[in-house]
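Supplementary Text 2. Reproducibility record for the structural model of the 586-residue chain.

All settings were left at their defaults, and a single model was retained for analysis rather than an ensemble. We include the record here because the model underlies the residue-level annotations in Supplementary Table 4.
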Amino acid sequence: MKQHALSIRDCTELLRFLVTPAFRAEVQEAATILVQVYSASGDPAWIGAILELLAEHLPGAVVAGATTIGEIAQGRTLASTTAISFTLFTTSRVTAILEPAGPGADREAGRRIGQAIADLGPEVAGALLLATTNTMDASELLLGMAEGDGSYPIFGGGAGGYGPQQHALVFLGRQVTDCGVVALALAGPDLQVEAHHYLGWRPMTREMRITATDGMWVQTVDGIPAFEVYRRYLGIANDPDFFLNTLEFPFLLERQGQGLARVPFAAGPAGALRFVGDIFEGERFRLGYGDPTAILAESIELQRKIRAAQPQGIFLYSCICRRFLLQDDSELETLPFEGIAPTTGFYTFGEFFGRDRELRVLNATLVAVAIREGPPAPEPAPAPGAMVRPAPGDPLAHKHSRVVDRLVHFVGAVTAELEEANDKLRHLSVTDDLSGLNNRLLLDRVFRRELARIARYPSSLAIILLDVDHFKQVNDGAGHLAGDAVLVHLAGILRAHVRVADTLGRWGGDEFLFILSHASADEARMVAETLRSNLAASPALATGPITCSYGITAFRPGDTVTTMMRRADAALYAAKQAGRDRVCVG
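Retained model, structure tokens:
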């Protein structure tokens, strides 16, 4: 296998390469040729001229490509050009599929692609996807593909465009579409395909929650229009530059223990945000920002993995967010791959990655693919005494990344301080100062939530209301400090008997409340009797032994917080009247 990559600005440059004797000799020996064309221009005449020239000189080649927002050739980050790569396989083959897509048709397109690849047999080593992610639901496409029985890696990216009026296009041969997907299945008896990816973005805001979605649109966040997140935190307006202004600030989520980014590319008039990848109602996220230091450190680790695969060619599919963030320093993560093997690719509008049933649309990531035919070549031993002397560094190089790195660190430190302060405030707002238990505000909130749960999913609920016997005598006789000591001692004993599903707190004065989820009145009585006996066995304080009276009730249809508390209070009063230090059910 051999791979070549070049960038062109006119067809003369392409023709000059195609007729090179050395290249023509390689073409004669190749079993299959894959040509990837990534063009900054969506001009049909330009794309058509390239495709015609390729068809004339490489009539048997598989030619596929996309419009882009940045190109990669020989590891270099390019702009406003066309990158073309030639992968010449010796024993492998490429099967190409073009599927139309669009609302309601994306999952079925994925099913057809998955089935077509499955029909090729066990020699499939990987599949490259190029799609118009701005006109389709790429997550649905992958769900359809995941229904198949493929164990090969999936990789690739979404087409883009430099201008707001430019349609994103994908093409296969002479077929061009602005709403569809090109799938290229790579198969061969000794073909090795290995794909990796990494993110490098860090959270910088408080955690927020998706509260309403509609397909690929997120309508509200924390109950307000989703667009308000960008207006409030970043001062971004809902104007034609919205996408460019939000590129560096994706939603950062976590799924199955892995970080995931989502970048909005449009804002609706009602404040909804349109995303390339799926986002689900109830998911929590933070706004993120790229950390250049983390990106470049992870890039080195990824290069190590790719180098270990000993590829003969490398494909890179990197999110436009990365180019936007790193600017002139973007080659710091792409160019080193060229030192491993010939490298080609483009900057994407969403990246595809995964295998088996774990297929995902990614944002803000770099996907690197190592391809090789045959067994790995033995690594050459270093020459005895060989040493490479590092060139002196430029102290002013990469200043953009350095400044951004410091700002990211600053934002992270400030965010951590604010979150710590907010956590303390949240704790104080729901905690009773004296006992350290939950206060009445939180108890009332939990109580209402439990009643709402029962309304949706019929279940059981019980409460225990208790107070200290003769507590007024302790305060009057020994003073309020002694009374406080009694309440603190009692709180410690009660806390030791709270189940995971239950909630305990100080209701007020010397009254404490247990909310027992999924419990009957009999189960609540057993808990109260255990509390009563343990309290009796506890060491007496200076003011004497502590006893309590307990009022219990369980949920009845139509109950509210008020009705249940009224019955529990009546049961507590009955326990007092019956001699105290006992349990009554109301």
